[in-house]
């Protein structure tokens, strides 16, 4: 099964918010930090008119999964994701996923290969609808561990 790798962009003056839903682990940092901009009940769920560029950029930096990012139009779209330097780090998140920070290659059951160069969140509760990646299901099932 081929992944779609959806990428959506939301422009505001010089700032462009980039959302990659396949990376989202539903930490809700965005919603709690800027509820006027980020609202899952609204479509589209990102409304960049609700805050200034600096506030939006600061909130996006708090996204743990990298599902939200941004770039400045004046600087152009970012080049390919840069690889992280140093050793790959693995962190077990209390009552949540496994975070892998670093360069890795994932070979899927169908034999396809995915390259990951920043943070990747792997499911450890077994309930994700996007295995092997976390989709935040651990919260709805009350996963403890």
| Count of distinct strands | 8
Proportion of beta-strand residues: 15-25%
Biggest sheet strand order reads: 1-2-3
Run of helices and strands: EEHHEEEEEEH
Q: Gap between N and C termini, in Å? A: 30 Å
Approximate shape: globular
Helical segment count:
3
Q: Taking Cα atoms only, what radius of gyration do you get, to the nearest Å?
A: 16 Å
Question: Can you describe this structure?
Answer:
This protein is of the alpha+beta class. Helix content is 12%, strand content 24%. It is built from three helices and eight strands, in the order ββααββββββα. The chain has helices at residues 29-33, 53-60, 137-141, and strands spanning 8-12, 15-19, 68-72, 89-92, 98-101, 104-107, 113-116, 119-122. The strands form three sheets. A three-stranded antiparallel beta sheet has the order 1-2-3, with helices on one face. A hairpin with a 5-residue loop joins β6 (104-107) and β7.
Features:
145 residues; alpha+beta; 3-stranded antiparallel β-sheet; 8 strands; globular
What is the secondary structure topology, with strand pairs?
Blueprint (H helix, E strand, L loop, with lengths): L7 E5 L2 E5 L9 H5 L19 H8 L7 E5 L16 E4 L5 E4 L2 E4 L5 E4 L2 E4 L14 H5 L4
Antiparallel strand pairs: 1-2, 2-3, 4-5, 5-8, 6-7
What would you say about this model in short?
This protein is of the alpha+beta class and 145 residues long.
């Amino acid at each position: 099964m081929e992944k779609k790798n959806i990428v959506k962009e939301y422009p505001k003056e010089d700032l462009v918010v980039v959302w990659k839903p396949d990376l989202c682990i539903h930490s809700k940092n965005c919603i709690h930090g800027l509820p006027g901009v980020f609202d899952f009940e609204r479509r589209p769920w990102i409304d960049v008119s609700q805050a200034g560029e600096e506030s939006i950029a600061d909130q996006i930096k708090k996204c743990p999964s990298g599902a939200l990012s941004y770039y400045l139009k004046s600087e152009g779209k970012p080049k390919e994701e840069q690889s992280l330097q140093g050793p790959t780090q693995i962190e077990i998140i209390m009552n949540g996923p496994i975070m892998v920070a670093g360069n890795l290659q994932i070979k899927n059951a169908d034999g396809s290969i995915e390259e990951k160069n920043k943070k990747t969140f792997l499911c450890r509760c077994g309930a994700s609808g996007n295995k092997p990646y976390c989709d935040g299901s651990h919260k709805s099932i009350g996963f403890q561990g």
